[in-house]
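Sample 1 of the test manifest.
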Amino acid sequence: MSSEPRAPLKLAVPRGALLGETLDLLDAAGVDTAELRGDSRSLIFEAGGMTLVTMRPSDVPTYVEAGAADVGITGKDVLLEQSDRPVYELLDLGYGRCRMVLAGRAGSDRLSESARSLGMMRIATKYPRIAERYFESTGRQIELIEVKGSVELAPLVGLGDGIVDLVATGRTLEENELEVREEIVECTARLVANRVAHKLRAAEIDELTEKLREASRG
Amino acid sequence: MIHPIPPGTRDVLPEEMRELRRLQGALIEVFEGRGYGEVATPALEYDEVLRRGGGRAQDAAYRFFDEGGELLALRSEMTVPIARLVATRYTGAEPPHRFCYLAGAYRAVSPQRGEMREFTQAGVELIGADGTGEVIEVLQEALDAARLASAVIGLGDADLYRDLVEEYGLDDDAAAAVLERLGAHDLVGLEAELAGAGASEEQIATCLAVSQLRGGVEVLERARGCGSPAVSRAAGRLEDIYRGLEDRDGGYRVQFDFGLMRDLSYYNGAILEVYDPAVGHVLGGGGRYDGLMKRFGLDLSAAGFALNLERVHVAQIEERRRQGEGR
């Protein structure tokens, strides 16, 4: 209805593990990301008629919820952990596949021992809400220990009986003598949208969604 | 000395207060001009009364006991208090009843996300008349009076997906899971839930496509084109409202939105939300809730909306700033 010229659509792009495949996908969808692949220190780029804003994956829901970015790409793990943020989840992009798992020390039965003798397990994690929901839904009680950095460290030095963490190849677990005990959920990269932008910039967002859908199936 | 206030609350100083007052005055003038008399109700209600109303009101976040041991709650919205007021004070009176309000409401939102725990609602309730169209007109006038040139009213239908899951023959659990995914607007999860519930590929595709239908009158045709009776019925209901508005030169802010979901325990028929391109948050919402008055012992239809006054003010400032930048 409004005919005013508009700013380009803002897309939040995750830095870190998802960046490479996100840029590949954007390239496949016809958005030239050469500039983002350079060693530029800037965080904002113009490409393919959009403004690409790069940020930590865990910040993507924050920017998108507030409308500072109209659309964004981030992992399902991030969305599950921040499920109180009302962003629209439009598309499973298929890449960045990893598993959220419960892991314990290899060859040790400390997890089940604690569950038996203490009636609960002590779990260290960077994903307190996912862990809480998972154990609640399986009827078990846990004591949560939230850590920010390398969570594999926690059970090795006695902080907790096990961990809930994201595993891609399982190498980090192996190197730290940890093993997967239970799989909680599989996570991939998702396309999300701000709920107001989804209404008011419907045509642009639908077009981007279609292009990314085709590129990700490609 | 610094004396703190609780997170999610704030002081208003004279400069902002003057602007808020002007906005309040403009809104109340529109409401009163359309015959909606202003009412005030206590910020504190008996928790039991708010629970009776259901919807968001039953989740009052701030509850405490008074000296007599009664459980009190701070209201989280105004619709249920007004339903209570009508049922108590207007039992013998001839409907329709038209009321408006400017009132503080309280919700335990996370204040680190730009949401306030205490905020002001400005809205209307039309009780005892089939008045979705009238309510939308009043809302349009209110947005005009607030000088929000770009604000849009998203109009959807609360019965659409309840109908659709029935048409698909989903059992109660599957239907609830599907409606929850629709409410969260999680299309990936929605597809998985539908597939898990045994919906056909065609049904899944229809449901996903319908949830993405939004825009001008042209989407009504597209909705009818997807071949589901439930969707066609919803399109018919929305078209009726829209034609009624058009006949009275209204409808200019309305966009159809087949993906719109609000708290379903409360609404039936039309639901609406207000957006402004200048801000990422929803400015307000409402719709029709015929079942509400029955919970208070009166069999009357009802419709209304509430705007978040502070957010409307932010949108005003943002729109002004954008115009200043020549946008």
